[in-house]
């Protein structure tokens, strides 16, 4: 978090939180009241001051005011950068994946130390190249079999990342927030 934000919070500790005005879509684009934010300096400021509270609600700390974020899917969107490294939509490197979930549509969601993030579908080839079925690359049949499983079950797939192999579990999209401890629609109550 920026030092200027910390100072503003100390000066004005009782500014009310905002709900329902900030939205993060599945591509990692920010919207304020339906209008897309595109200014690079604003986006960089938001990236540095984006965090999660004890309830699993994600927010942008804008000076002394906390604006809670409505999430279209997950709090983070994971992308492969030009160097081939996995990063969050906020620009932070992902170095560890604790768990991988496969939803009913074939999206892969990683549980990382930074939070839960869906792997951007633009990086699907990168993600598929890391799926394994036993000692072999996962083929279409193995992936189809995993997708056919009910939510909440283990698959026979593994995801290789940073020298580790992580078991892939089938989790329905609606169950992801509970499974990975985040809230899609924060509220004051």
Q: Considering DSSP H and I runs of 4 or more, what fraction of the residues is helical?
A: 10-25%
Domain count, please report it: 2
| Count of alpha/pi helices | 5
The termini sit apart by 25 Å
Uncertain runs: none
What does the average pLDDT come to? 92
Classification by helices and strands: alpha+beta
Number of strands: 15
Sheet with most strands: 9 strands, mixed
Order of helices and strands: HEEEHEEEEEEEEHEEHEEH
Dominant shape: elongated
Largest sheet, order of strands side by side?
A: 8-7-11-10-9-15-14-12-13
- Gyration radius, rounded: 18 Å
Strand content: 35-45%
Organism: Spectribacter hydrogenoxidans
Pfam family, one: DUF2944
Protein name: DUF2946 family protein
Question: How would you describe this structure to a colleague?
Answer:
The chain has two domains: about 5-70, duf1285 like fold; about 75-180, no CATH class. It contains five helices and 15 strands. It has helices at about 5-10, 40-50, 125-130, 140-150, 175-180; strands at about 20-25, 30, 35, 50, 60, 65-70, 75-80, 85-90, 100, 110, 115-120, 130-135, 135, 155-160, 165-170. The strands form two sheets. The chain has a nine-stranded mixed sheet. Strands 3-2-1-6-5-4 form a six-stranded mixed sheet. The two termini are about 25 Å apart. This is DUF2946 family protein. InterPro entries: DUF2944. It comes from Spectribacter hydrogenoxidans.
